[in-house]
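Table 4 source record.
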Amino acid sequence: MTSYPGRIYRFYRDGFKSMTVGKTLWKIILVKLFIMFAVLKLFFFPDFLSTKFSTDEQRADYVMEQITKSAQNQN
């Protein structure tokens, strides 16, 4: 008798081996995830803190100010 994680692993391994269309779909999903997290990050999410501040202390002060300002506005 094998362990529970071992049975789960074998279940997925055997399932992926017998897929035909599923392999193509997984490739499409992985390409889409790569585009979303790698490519879009470069264009739409620039590193704001490193462009505005030169030291880690300035960055930390700015982040702390933004966090506490929003908390004070909620009260």
